[in-house]
Amino acid sequence: MRYLGLAILIVGLFFACSKKSTSFNNSKSFVASLQTQSNDAIRISNELDNAINDVDSALAGATSICGATIVVDSVDSPRVIDINYNGNSCDALRTRTGSIGVIYTPGTDWNTPGDSVTLYFNPIVITRKSDGKPLTIKGILVYKNVTGGTLDSLAGGGAPIVHTLIGTNLSIKFDDSTLSNWSFARQRTYTYSSGLLISTIGLDSAGNIGGVADWGGNRFGNSVVVVPTTPIQLSQSCGWKITGGTETMTNPIGLSTLTFGLDTTGKPAGCPVNGGHFYYGLSWTGDGESPYSGVVPY
Description:
- By secondary structure, the chain is an alpha+beta fold.
- It has one domain (2-25, 33-245).
- It has helices at 2-18, 27-59, and strands at 64-65, 68-73, 79-88, 94-104, 115-128, 134-145, 161-173, 179-192, 196-202, 204-206, 209-212, 214-217, 223-235, 241-251, 254-262, 279-286, 292-297.
- The chain has a 15-stranded antiparallel β-sheet that branches.
- It is globular and about 60 Å long.
C-alpha cells in the first residue's frame, strides 16, 4: 500500500532526528524504556482489537454489549450504528467512555463480499482499573468484509472469514498525556475452536520491511514499526487474550522481537485462570546497548 512508504519516510526522518537518546543512557533506564515501548504497543493493539470485536457484535445485530449501549439510526443517509461506552468491560478490568460510530450506506449488506463500513472513534478512553492509567484513541478506520459471510457460520464449520482494517494517523494519548499518531493496516482471519479465533497479519510495507500491521510514535519521541512475523492469535475462549504469535518492533535505534503466549519461564502456556497473566518474551538488538532478553507479563 502506497501511503505507508511515504509516511514512514517522513515520520522516520523526523523521529530519527529528534529521538531522546537520554531515555537509553544506562542499562536500567534502557530496560524500563524498552518494556514501556513494548507494553504501550501491546495495549494499543489489544484495545483496538477489543473495539473491533464490539463492532463485529454491533454489525451482527447485538442491541448491547458490556459497558455500552448500541443505538441504530435507520433513517438518515448514511446510516450510523453508535456504540456508546460508559461502563466496565466484560472482564471488569477496564472502564471505557466515549463512542464508536459505524457508518454505512443504506441498502448495503455487511455480509456481502467486499462490503465495508467506516469506523469513527469519537474518541474512546480506556482506563485500567488496576492502576487508573488511561489510553485514548481517536480517528477513522475503514473496515472491510473481504470474503463476506457471517461469523455465526463458523461454529457450524463454515469457511474462514477475512476482514481488513485500514486507518492512518489516529490520535493516541498515552497515560502520561503524551500524544502520538498511529496507523493500522491489518488483516483479521476468523476461524472457530471452542469460540472465535482471530489471526492477525500486516498488509503494508516500508522500504525493506514487509508485512507491517501498525506504525506510529512511542512516548519517547521515536517512530515504531510493528510487523507480525507469525500471525497474532486472539482467542474468545481465553477471554480475548493474545494467546500466541510473534512480532517485531523496529525503531531508529534497534529491533525488538516479541513472542506471545508464554508462562513465567518463557515456555508456551495454556490459558491463564483466575485473572492470571500471559507473558511475552522480549529480545532486543541495536545501537548503544548490549543485546537484551527478558520475560514480561501482559
